[in-house]
């Protein structure tokens, strides 16, 4: 019971850790730096499209809302695309999917897209389904407060040059990744093996008789002259004939064997009589001492 609970807890822990690891390797926080003031805004690079280069990406920020107020969410290609050509465009979240926005802005000539959250104040990773290999420009997501701040900066100074700073995916320590990727399955395998061994041992313990119980069973010395007609003359375990002065163990079922043979059978293999399969640990009226109930002090 305890083992099962522990195993479930461990698996859950492992799952959480794996998903965390998976998230860590896909969620990539980056930064938008306003070149003139060096003010930085946190952003998150989309799961699709190219990564940012080592030098980062420089460009002037253009608010789509300023060019086409009814297309501030970038859900269609800009009619007047000259104004966004070779610029980084800022569009608002909503109405259409992230990938649609990026595709529309790419078609309009933008070199990168910043998607600003209009509702909540947290970073999310922009995902897209299907083939996204046509996306050739990077895109990042900023939370509501950053979106508002960047917008007001643009309103104030019109020409805002920014640098989209390289994401930190490649800075993720390679050694850590290798250690985690190699060690996680190994640790799990070792854990499962240890659990399996413990379980086997427990099962084995239930199957065999305790030494003390076996030692309390009756014994006798064999003499052929005293043997009655219905008594066997050979040990059913080793199939050897009894000879005078052999030490025999008598089980509660009255079956007899060499002490060495039956003791080893009961304590290492099964707690049953090899002939009639009766459990020697089950108390009977004749053998009340075989119970494990020891007097409490
Ligand atoms: Zn024997
Ligand atoms: Zn028996």
From TrEMBL:
Residue spans crossing the bilayer: 172-196
Keyword Transferase: no
All residue ranges annotated as the RING-type domain in the record: 235-277
A Pfam family per the record: PA
Range of residues in the leader sequence: 1-21
Reaction equations catalysed: S-ubiquitinyl-[E2 ubiquitin-conjugating enzyme]-L-cysteine + [acceptor protein]-L-lysine = [E2 ubiquitin-conjugating enzyme]-L-cysteine + N(6)-ubiquitinyl-[acceptor protein]-L-lysine
SUPFAM superfamilies recorded: PA domain (SSF52025), RING/U-box (SSF57850)
Bilayer topology term: Single-pass membrane protein
EC number: 2.3.2.27
Location(s), subcellular: Membrane
Source organism of the structure: Funneliformis geosporum
Name of the featured protein: RING-type E3 ubiquitin transferase
PANTHER family: OS02G0798600 PROTEIN, RING ZINC FINGER DOMAIN SUPERFAMILY PROTEIN-RELATED
InterPro entries named in the record: E3_ligase_sorting_rcpt, PA_dom_sf, PA_domain, Znf_RING, Znf_RING/FYVE/PHD
GO cellular component: membrane
């Amino acid at each position: 019971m305890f083992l099962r609970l522990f195993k479930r807890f461990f698996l859950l822990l492992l799952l959480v850790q794996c998903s965390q690891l998976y998230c860590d390797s896909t969620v990539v926080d980056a930064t938008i730096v306003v070149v003139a003031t060096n003010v930085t805004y946190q952003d998150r690079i989309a799961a699709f499209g190219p990564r940012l280069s080592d030098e980062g990406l420089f460009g002037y920020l253009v608010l789509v809302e300023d060019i086409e107020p009814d297309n501030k969410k970038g859900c269609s290609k800009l009619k007047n695309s000259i104004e966004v050509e070779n610029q980084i465009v800022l569009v608002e979240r909503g109405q259409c999917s992230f990938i649609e926005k990026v595709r529309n802005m790419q078609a309009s000539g933008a070199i990168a897209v910043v998607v600003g959250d209009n509702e909540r104040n947290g970073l999310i990773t922009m995902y897209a389904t299907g083939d996204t290999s046509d996306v050739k420009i990077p895109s990042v997501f900023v939370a509501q407060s950053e979106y508002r701040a960047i917008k007001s900066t643009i309103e104030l100074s019109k020409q805002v040059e920014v640098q989209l700073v390289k994401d930190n995916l490649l800075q993720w320590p390679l050694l850590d990744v290798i250690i985690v990727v190699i060690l996680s399955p190994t640790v799990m395998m070792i854990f499962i093996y240890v659990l399996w061994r413990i379980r086997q041992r427990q099962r084995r313990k239930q199957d065999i008789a305790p030494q003390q119980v076996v030692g309390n069973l009756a014994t006798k010395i064999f003499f052929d002259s005293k043997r009655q007609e219905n008594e066997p003359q050979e040990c059913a375990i080793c199939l050897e004939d009894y000879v005078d002065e052999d030490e025999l163990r008598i089980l509660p079922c009255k079956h007899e064997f060499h002490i060495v043979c039956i003791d080893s059978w009961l304590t290492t293999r099964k707690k049953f009589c090899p002939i009639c399969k009766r459990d020697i640990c089950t108390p009977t009226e004749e053998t009340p001492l075989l119970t494990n109930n020891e007097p409490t002090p």
